[in-house]
């Protein structure tokens, strides 16, 4: 049943409840003169991609055409500066490479049709070369493969519906991994033996029971029948913890939802606009989007509205990972479309946020910010 009653949840343990949230004020950092659509940590660096043409450093514009690297510990712009001739929508780091996708045809001086790899240290363009018809939106790595999702219809002239896999060792398109999705793929993440896939599709690999959210087995690319969520609204982003899958949903207003590894819905909490980004750190699930208010408690069912008064919570929020209650953390972001991307660095205790926003409260943070776990030692980096 679509609007099934939520599964009961256990109360947070004392150890979980004691974990601190990230600071409500963003750390000092560079900004950008255009939207940041993608953020990804690799080592002590956070890489960003988007539609910007310059980084903003102490009031100066420093050329950075749609790709940039920032020191995750200090927020300072790094000299790494490859360029693209079109918007970067998705990126992920693995090994020595940053994989990027989007609406571009060149990277540096090399022809690259919507998908490329760039050296994480030097910025040199790698050998991965394919022509993507449509727009790639999301990337992830696992099981020896690079996975690409988006609104795509072909790779190198071969029909490929919205989801593609590439052999990491050779760069070749892996035609044996599933048959794609019949609608846009918005979110991909690998955890354990699964590739989780979210988006606007009705069928993944042509299988029933895979509407908007499903999992493929990394071993063979087939649908994993032991994960059967019922997701009433399209999925914009995903993050996975050992005991739950967290999804950013659209729909009437928006939702942050938690599922068990078998797909059972644990909780679903309402916002008044689409949820577009999500990540998890410690006891909290952090989410971003283009809402203005959020419900303080989860809804009774997957589709029912907020059972109490919604709280002012513009564009970004933190929820208790166990029960979906809205936490007392409110950075007060701005903008129409708000937060578009999030990534987490658990060791450094940092969350990178990108989007259309320009400020958090009274602090100017054009299109990029980092939130840091407050601590005096043991965070793996400097708190600022």
The shape, in one word, is globular
Radius of gyration: 20 Å
Sheet/helix structural class: mainly beta
Sequence stretches where pLDDT stays below 50 over 5 or more residues: 1-5, 7-18, 376-384
Helical residues, percent: under 10%
Mean pLDDT: 93
* Terminal Cα span: 48 Å
Question: What are the main properties of this structure?
Answer:
single chain; 384 residues; mainly beta; four-stranded antiparallel sheet; 1 helix; 32 strands; 1% helix; globular; disordered N terminus; disordered C terminus
Please specify the SSE layout and strand pairing.
Elements: H1 14-17, E1 31-32, E2 36-42, E3 45-50, E4 54-57, E5 60-63, E6 67-71, E7 88-94, E8 97-102, E9 106-107, E10 110-111, E11 115-119, E12 132-142, E13 145-155, E14 158-159, E15 163-167, E16 185-191, E17 194-199, E18 213-217, E19 235-241, E20 244-249, E21 254-259, E22 265-271, E23 275-281, E24 284-289, E25 293-295, E26 310-312, E27 316-320, E28 339-345, E29 350-355, E30 359-360, E31 363-364, E32 368-372
Antiparallel strand pairs: 1-4, 2-3, 3-6, 4-5, 7-8, 8-11, 9-10, 12-13, 13-14, 13-15, 16-17, 17-18, 19-20, 20-21, 21-22, 23-24, 24-27, 25-26, 28-29, 29-32, 30-31
